[in-house]
Amino acid sequence: MPLVFIAAAALAGCSVTDGDTIRCGDERIRFLGVDAPDDPSNSRCRPVPKPGAICDRQRAEASKEALQRTMTGPLSIERVGVDPYGRTLALVYVQGRSLSCRQIEAGQAVYVARWDQDGRVARECPRAVASWQGWR
């Protein structure tokens, strides 16, 4: 899939859904290799939390807010596939820095190796991935 650059002016068309997903127009984009906490009202958390789901309203809100603060400038999106829910799987960058890595480093998402196609996130921020001692 092609690498796409979204100009800063187009950021108004992109919004943060949660700590690991954004929406740009009609496209939902899920960050590669990470999982952020979910609001308990999310389908991953109800009626019973799915295995591995992080269901915590305060952490979910903090993760979403942290991502919103980092989306300051042009985005570049490297699409790598589509997940079972129809979301684009992608590496998303702001100012040349991976948002997956930023969320891990800020303690706002956990690294999930099975969701990291070809270990791409692990190669981009190996220290953050190796040292992650988060809440999962």
Supply the key terms.
136 residues, alpha+beta, OB fold (Dihydrolipoamide Acetyltransferase, E2P), 7-stranded mixed beta sheet, two-stranded antiparallel ribbon, 4 helices, globular
Indicate the proportion of strand residues.
25-35%
What number of domains? 1
Estimated helix fraction: 10-25%
**Principal-axis shape:** globular
Domain TNase-like: 28-117
Protein name: Nuclease
Pfam families: SNase
InterPro entries: SNase_OB-fold_sf, Staphylococal_nuclease_OB-fold
What does this structure look like?
This protein is α+β, with helices and mostly antiparallel strands. Helix content is 24%, strand content 29%. Strand 3 (21-24) and strand 4 (27-31) form a beta hairpin. The protein is globular and about 40 Å long. It starts with a strand and ends in a 5-residue tail after the last helix.
Topology:
Layout: E1 3-6, E2 14-18, E3 21-24, E4 27-31, E5 34-35, H1 57-70, E6 75-82, E7 88-94, E8 97-98, H2 99-105, E9 110-111, H3 120-124, H4 126-131
Parallel strand pairs: 4-7
Antiparallel strand pairs: 1-6, 2-3, 3-4, 5-9, 6-7, 7-8
Domain TNase-like: 28-117
Protein name: Nuclease
Organism: Sphingobium cupriresistens LL01
